[in-house]
Amino acid sequence: LMCLLFTISSAESYRYQKEKLKYNDWSSTGNVKKNGRITSFLYYYNKRKDTLASIGTHNHFSIFDQFYPNTPDQRRNIHIIILESFADPRQIQNFTYSPSPIHHKLQPFLAQNTNFSMITTPVYGGGTAQSEFEILTGIPALSLIDSIDFNLFEGNASSSLVQMLRKMGYYTMASVATEPVFYNAKLAYKGIGFDEVNFLGENTYFEEKEDHYLFDGDFLQANQTYIKKYLSQKDEVKPLLNYIVGMFGHVPFERNKKLRPDAIAIHPDNEQLFDMANQFYYRTEALGQFLHDLQELDPYSIILITSDHLPPIFNNTDIQYKQALKSNIALLLDNFTEVDISGKTTYETSHILWNLLNQSSSPTNTDTLFADKSKEDFYFSFILEAMGLQDMPTTGTIGKGMKRLFHSIHHPKEDTATGKKAIKE
Questions:
Q1: What predicted TM-score, i.e. pTM, was given to this entire model?
Q2: Least trusted range by pLDDT, from 7-21, 53-67, 272-286, 320-334
Q3: What is the DSSP letter of 175?
């Protein structure tokens, strides 16, 4: 048995698994369903060996001391909203719209009633978790070990903005409009430091209604009802980090036309952009309503809203984006006053939120973040924490964390046949 395990966990076996079995980087659950438990265990075993080799001799240091040297006196609530493929149609060349695809309910919160900030995300067309990684940790998502950095988490506490807020007494809550089968989400959110995580389909406070994906308006309304109940508790309430990840907005920009009929005309005609513009119109209506109600409920809060990435439609020669393909719209509100963060990256937003809590005179100044250590140094130090390796050498630790490969994901028994076949081959 030991000889068999040694053989099928060899470099040759790992090469075969990568080339023939086509493991994806976005769903370990799907990989196990497709390839079986045993084959997948061996694949992830070898992948972890590669990970440790990639980390090499990089050292760990205190990220908290570097990023968060001063504890702010303020304990204002923070709301972070990431919306799937939330792209402004006005940023597409050679098309006009009537009326504006920005709903009038959102306009009062925008600069000059019309302008978003433009920030740089780490991805284009997909890979939501990379943008999440940057916003929640303040670390660039460099993908130096895995194409998706969320995949490296093993549930160990890490030096994220979320963990820092927890140390300050915040209640940290995440709500995600998808099932917990993508991007190692459960272990990633645990390591990042959320006290409560709500996923779609897990008997949570929101549910999918009339659309293929949960409509932003239904999601935001449910979230507001939920946090209103939290903030209205009679007992002393901890300050709140309210983190929301929406999933409405995927190509092909579907919507329930009975509930949300065509409202925007486009010139020249383009069916895909027509659907995108009309969907965006109703999304901005929902967002505007959420902000209007939140202003009454939580007027002194800090709110960050951004897209995770652009939809993957701009390689088409007929559809050209005016900006770089990783440039996305964002809106930052401090006491419901717009703060321009144009030119910033998603990892900088984490530090800007911290500066606003500290009442910094120049909250968007992030020039000194990596003055003493490189981005790569911070990245590897953080990953060591995420994997629970900050206090031990990276050699001799292959077994650590392997238990999570199958106990943290779902794997129906009927899907083991493929795995048996692969081992036989």
A1: 0.88
A2: 7-21
A3: E
